[in-house]
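Dear H.,

Thanks for agreeing to be a second pair of eyes. The structure we're designing against is below in token form, covering all 173 positions.
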């Protein structure tokens, strides 16, 4: 066999072992396969003036992907969006690339949300949270959440949000 023939055979064999990345990447999650829950876990989120919660998105279907930083909104008891925005992350801007998070069937992804709660001065403006809403594509997932975000008059209320992380096991609740 000639050298050209050996190279052609070697390339054909080698290419048969290269996985097709498109075939391995799961599709984006669909609304019908997701559910939302919160876990305030008082310890890590409660401080002198801090509050927060862990938000879990459970995948009840086949493996799929979620955006690393889905849009989060807080709603009042009437379902109106409260005037609170995600604070800009500390560090690189626009930041490291945020790749989608793969969530296995029956597993969950979680993000931590944190905010200032419990006014020290008594002059702060308080936003009363009744629900948290996470938008995935065109779907809006909602879960009950009792909380208060405090901010000084004339300023915008902000909250922190960590990128989603894949978690083993089922979501609480």
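And this is the sequence the design step returned. I haven't edited it by hand at all.
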């Amino acid at each position: 066999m000639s050298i050209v023939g050996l190279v052609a055979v070697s390339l054909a064999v080698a290419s048969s072992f290269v996985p097709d990345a498109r075939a391995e990447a799961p599709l984006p999650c669909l609304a019908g396969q997701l559910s939302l829950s919160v876990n305030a876990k008082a310890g890590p989120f409660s401080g002198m003036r801090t509050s927060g919660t862990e938000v879990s998105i459970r995948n009840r279907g086949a493996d799929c992907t979620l955006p690393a930083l889905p849009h989060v909104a807080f709603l009042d008891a009437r379902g109106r969006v409260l005037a609170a925005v995600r604070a800009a992350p500390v560090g690189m801007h626009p930041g490291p690339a945020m790749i989608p998070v793969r969530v296995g069937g029956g597993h969950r992804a979680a993000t931590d949300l944190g905010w200032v709660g419990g006014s020290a001065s008594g002059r702060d403006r308080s936003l009363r949270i009744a629900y948290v809403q996470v938008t995935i594509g065109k779907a809006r997932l909602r879960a009950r959440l009792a909380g208060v975000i405090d901010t000084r008059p004339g300023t915008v209320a902000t909250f922190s949000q960590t990128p989603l992380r894949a978690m083993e096991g089922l979501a609480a609740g």
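Two observations from my side: The mean pLDDT is 81. The helical segments are 3-16, 21-24, 42-45.

Warmly,
E.
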